[in-house]
Design a protein that fits this description.
It contains eleven helices and six strands. By secondary structure, the protein is α+β, with helices and mostly antiparallel strands. The strands form two sheets. A four-stranded antiparallel sheet has the order 3-4-5-6. Strand 1 and strand 2 form a beta hairpin. Helix 6 packs antiparallel against helix 10 and helix 10 packs antiparallel against helix 11. The longest helix is centred in the C-terminal third of the chain and has 64 residues. 10% of the residues are buried. The N terminus is likely disordered.
């Protein structure tokens, strides 16, 4: 048994390692918006460190590799090395770190080295923040429901479908103003409907109550029903949780981009004012004008 167990774990580990490598290559391809680096690594895997003999091809591949390294490192969408070099020179001139530029995301134009003309309005930022908080609340509820032992099932009739929560020892309607008052437990089934009181009857019709009491009598069938419902329920909740994670990633990235763009805008404004003030004090009017134009906001 031990040898079989070790062999199984080894095969799973090898499969996981291969899948991880594919995921990493896919992530690099998405981040750089190019398959150059994955294809380059694939070429190196099959051909080793053999150097391309043609000088022009070698220089072309090296330039593309350097460009993809920059994209992969910072996630900034520059199309050519020349644009990359201009952006680096602009950042040095304005004393801006490249991660600060990258944090602006789509709000920064790397081609012209400037922020977009109009940043998102206050209303859009507020809507984005509210939707993010709502997604966090929904994600928390989905995670809590994933570990719940109560299944969501439904009564189906000719006229309507009504959902309720079913556990191993009790059931209650899904939508109820007072969950404890509409809770039907197994021991309530042994009492007459009038003796059971409004707590057992308020949440379910007499027909529904009779059906639930029959379900509570057969514990094996009850647990099988709950397990089947929980299986489908957890897969659905897991899918919803993944979608919420994707939305949260996008919304939080957008909020961080807005904050980073505002910080960069304030930095550029202070930097320009500082240089202009220094030139006005130390130089004549013509020299001041020349100094102001040398510290331009764009490439």
């Amino acid at each position: 048994m031990d040898s079989v167990s070790i062999s199984t774990m080894s095969s799973l580990l090898a499969m996981f390692a291969s899948l991880s490598a594919v995921l990493v290559l896919g992530f690099v391809g998405l981040r750089t918006r190019s398959m150059h680096l994955p294809m380059y690594r694939l070429w190196r895997f099959f051909h080793g460190n053999d150097v391309v003999s043609d000088f022009e091809i070698q220089r072309l591949v090296a330039s593309a590799t350097n460009l993809m390294h920059f994209r992969s490192m910072y996630g900034i969408r520059v199309d050519t090395l020349a644009q990359c070099h201009r952006l680096i020179a602009w950042a040095r001139m304005h004393e801006v770190e490249m991660p600060a530029v990258a944090a602006c995301g789509e709000l920064f134009d790397p081609i012209h080295c400037q922020l977009r003309e109009r940043l998102p309005t206050v209303g859009r930022r507020l809507a984005l923040a509210v939707s993010t908080l709502l997604a966090i609340a929904l994600f928390s509820a989905a995670v809590m429901a994933l570990f719940s032992q109560t299944a969501l099932v439904r009564f189906t009739s000719a006229s309507e479908q009504r959902y309720f929560l079913l556990g191993s020892d009790a059931a209650r309607p899904l939508w109820s103003m007072s969950p404890s008052a509409s809770r039907l437990q197994g021991p309530d089934c042994g009492k007459p409907l009038a003796a059971a009181g409004p707590q057992a009857a308020s949440g379910f019709t007499p027909e529904e109550r009779n059906i639930l009491c029959k379900v509570f009598e057969d514990q094996a069938q009850l647990m099988a029903t709950i397990d089947q419902a929980l299986f489908a329920q957890r897969w659905l909740l897991a899918g919803c949780a993944l979608l919420l994670i994707f939305f949260l990633k996008m919304s939080t990235t957008a909020l961080r981009s807005i904050a980073a763009a505002e910080d960069l805008q304030r930095h550029l404004t202070r930097r320009l004012l500082f240089v202009n003030a220094s030139d006005a004090v130390s130089s004549a009017s013509s020299a001041s004008t020349s100094g102001a134009s040398s510290l331009r906001r764009t490439c």
